[in-house]
Description:
The complex is a heterodimer of chains A (254) and B (317).
Chain A: H1 2-18, H2 20-41, H3 56-86, H4 88-93, H5 98-122, H6 134-159, H7 165-181, H8 194-202, H9 204-217, H10 228-251
Helix pairs in contact in A: 1-5, 2-3, 3-5, 3-6, 3-7, 3-9, 5-6, 6-9, 6-10, 9-10
Chain B: E1 7-18, E2 21-32, E3 36-40, H1 47-54, E4 62-67, E5 70-71, H2 76-82, E6 83-86, H3 98-108, H4 113-126, H5 142-154, E7 160-164, H6 172-188, E8 192-197, H7 200-203, E9 208-213, E10 216-222, H8 223-229, E11 234-238, H9 242-251, E12 255-260, E13 263-268, H10 273-284, E14 290-294, H11 298-306
Amino acid sequence: MLKAAYSLALREVMRFLRQKNRVIGALATPVIFWFVLGSGVGRSLLEAGSRTRIDYLSYFFPGIILLIILFTAILSTVSIIEDRKEGFLQGVLVAPAGWAAILFGKLMGGTILAVLQAIAVILIAPYSDHHPDLRVIVSLVGVISVLAIGLTALGFLIAWPMDSTQGFHAVINLFFVPLWLLSGALFPAGGAADWVKTLMRFNPLSYAHNALQELLATKPGMPLPADLSHDISIVIAVTLLLVMACAFQVSRRS
Amino acid sequence: MAAASLAAVQAEGVGYAYGRKRVLDNISLKLEEGGMFCVLGPNGSGKTTLFKIFATIFALQDGEISIAGRSLRDFPTPIRRKIGVLFQNPAVDMKLTVRENLRHHGHLYGLESYDLETRITKNLEALGIEDRGGDFVESLSGGLRRRVEIAKALLTRPSILLMDEPTTGLDPAIRSELWSIIAGIRNTRKLSVLFTTHLLEEAEPADEILLLDQGRAVASGPVAELRTSLGKEYVRLGTYQPKKLAAKIRKEGEIEATVEPASVKVVPVRGLAAPLAIRLWRQYGKEVTSVTLCRPTLEDLFMQKTGRPWSSTPGEI
């Protein structure tokens, strides 16, 4: 089963790397988004609850990492619908490895792609006035991995029963974009209206965003933030729930 | 198990419904070990549903199926190791090369390294595509893609090959090439084949057929026997006015004339069809565009059993 899952994951990565437009799209779009929006808003945003003005390029950076993981999760799960339509999936479904291989292959594939891209973006962290040391980078990769598994599982859950990519994109716009908007990626919860604050508190992505933000803000030599474990445990718990929901969904035979 | 029941695939009373819509009803068939079985039916007759049940994609609802001596209901996973599956739609990844596709498929079945690579090479050779191993599947023609699919289905050395409309979308020349490839493979290794098709001529080489219509078996048995059961040779007269001509011929007596689209089917009640053909040609030459001497075909069988010509869909007549 592991061999089969690994092979499916590898296929995912190979397909991605072979479609150059996908590589460029997945990496360049969020980075351009970050650079333009970050530079545009610049110093006009006041961080809520404090009197220090911060640069939006810097504030927006963790949100962009989040966006990249979100994009990758979406793109890697939309391939389920394509695989089903093109017929590739049926060949996998009749193999002895079965549904578990498909699920773990997809999750692994999506996660590998997300982590590779996130690392590529972390390399430009110094331009956003973040200076992560090795310890922070390792922790970041850990958080990103769990987050990527969770978001890929969410995409999988939505894509599995669907038969059109258009339908998938419609659901994504309705579902993923608000999740991201209300995660703290664009604005902090501090200055938001109460109902937005409430929504943000119930959004698991807020905790992921918070973890990324705090890790990135950790200066070399400083201890890792204390409430990190709280954020991460929420992200892990939600991820586990999503993976279990996927397993339940895929294991039901038609 | 008794020698008499040496079946590669055996189905008893198989039924299937999508919700309330019943698409298969009481289907039984037996594919002998090393044999070739054809499920023949027009579009929408339930062939693909039946195939998907055999291929372990759809769960078995009613009836019993045993494949390679095991119950499909109880042992789907061991059965998966015994079957090679060729789908109607291509099941290869266009963005991968031929070898990568096969390698990936091997991994799904737990094959790896040297054993896998040797098998891939052998299978590509057997299908005459050893020089295409490094090509992306999307760059291959339809016929070559189909060969890749066959190489893939046979990679795991199945004892049973299941094929759903294997020649869909291929032109006639490539179609017959594909069938000769399959015949060649059956010569070199022991392989039982079960396939579906809506093309009458493709059913001919099978040892046995099951004729399916609207989810029910309308006839089954060896092709030659089914033909004999249909009776005599007959004459088909091509004409622009089949009704008029049939009426004239019927008046002669001792001769049956049936109106068909743009033709009249004439069956002698006594005597042989060949002399009748010549006589009819002489007598009605002006009204007739062609005279054909025919043996009953599977098309006639379908017509006899369902009252509809093969090409019509239910409700058209």
